[in-house]
Amino acid sequence: MADSPEISALETLKKGYCSPSYVATMEIAGRFALELLPGSSIALCGDLGAGKTTFVKGIARGLGILETVKSPSFNICCIYEAPFGLRLVHVDAYRLKGAADFENLLLDEIAPEPKITCIEWPEILGDAFSFDITLKMEITQSGHFIRIV
User: Which residues, at least 6 apart from 112, have a Cβ–Cβ distance to it below 8 Å?
Assistant: First the structure.
């Protein structure tokens, strides 16, 4: 599906977007970031290599974060400071054993509002966290397909 600047990133992702490259994923995520409100929570669902961390990197760039965004696979949670006091909280729940492990992260204490929270592997959390937006990411023959579900 062709992306058009006249259509918001949110609308594009609701219809589904086939990203042909890393750069294209970063660009759509950066535009998407500009449409998010403080307090937004995003679930990123998809197999390994589907582009979840790349999408968060694009969100960070769109929020004006200059720091290098890395996968939080081993430290589980990374917090980045954006301009104007906004935080980006990036959680990789893959190594958590469930809701109790997530609650033990104490995200509200270590990263108070205003923040945008992005969680990879959200299915591990069960009902411990509610999301405003859920993105499903899939690897296809023509690129990475990203859609809001």
Answer: 87
Structure tokens at 11: 């609308």
Q: Among candidates 43, 4, 38, which has minimal Cα distance to 130?
A: 43
pTM of the prediction? Answer: 0.92
Q: What confidence tens digit (pLDDT) does each residue in 78-119 have?
A: 999 999 899 999 999 999 998 889 888 888 898 989 999 999
DSSP 6: T
**DSSP 8-state assignment for residue 16:** -
- Is residue 66 within 8 A of residue 36, CB to CB? The reply is no
* H or E element at residue 100: helix 99-103
What are the φ/ψ torsions at residue 130 (nearest 5 degrees)? Answer: -105, 145
